[in-house]
What we know:
Blueprint: E1 10-14, H1 19-30, E2 34-39, H2 42-48, E3 57-61, H3 67-80, E4 86-89, H4 104-132, E5 135-140, H5 144-147, H6 153-173, E6 178-185, H7 191-194, H8 198-205, H9 216-227, E7 238-241
Parallel strand pairs: 1-2, 1-4, 2-3, 4-5, 5-6, 6-7
Amino acid sequence: MPGPLLADQTAVITGAAQGIGFAIAQLFIDEGAHVVIGDIDADAATAATRLGGDARAIGVRCDVTSSDDVDALLAAGADAFGPVDVMVNNAGITRDATMRKMTEEQFDQVISVHLKGTWNGTRKAAAIMRERKKGAIVNLSSLSGKIGLVGQTNYSAAKAGVVGLTKAAAKEVAHDGVRVNAIQPGLIRTAMTEAMPQKAWDQKMTEIPLQRAGEVSEVASVALFLASDLSSYMTGTVLEVTGGRFM
């Protein structure tokens, strides 16, 4: 039988104290990786390391909008486990409001965390990876970045930007053996989505051919595919995990 897909690799995941990021961290550890859980909430990041019962995970506070914090996150991983092999840029926030009501601060916050945060993570990890001539970067976009959703001019713009960033970065570092790909999840069952009004949930369900919401584990499995050698001839791609919604 083949060994674990990420045996002894160092994986750094932002926004990994909960939700999709946490599910990715769990699966990566199951597949042999050492995981660095980055999160703006230091206590939550530390608590999340319980999934690595044999000291396979560490938690580090990280504000992805700060390049210094991202440097510190990568350095902590290198000190604990070795240089980064896999970088997953997952950290994100929402500040939903219609364009008429949205404040500049709400717009700037979302753009900064999603787009600048992904840029920081991509460029900082790529700089380390290209020296070693190998590495995989996985960026979390969203279906909202493909179709645009009402009340999310900030989020849709940021997530569309992540796709452009991913493709441009992939072209820049491909010759150094570094791959950069993105995932666009659709309606995924999380604490945030389950708090939606039932009417909004029901409307979204009518748009999904598979007739159900996705699970965080289903996004994590795609992240594992892109992080591992199973996708060794893929870079600059965007994989939709949407149940067929808006295909």
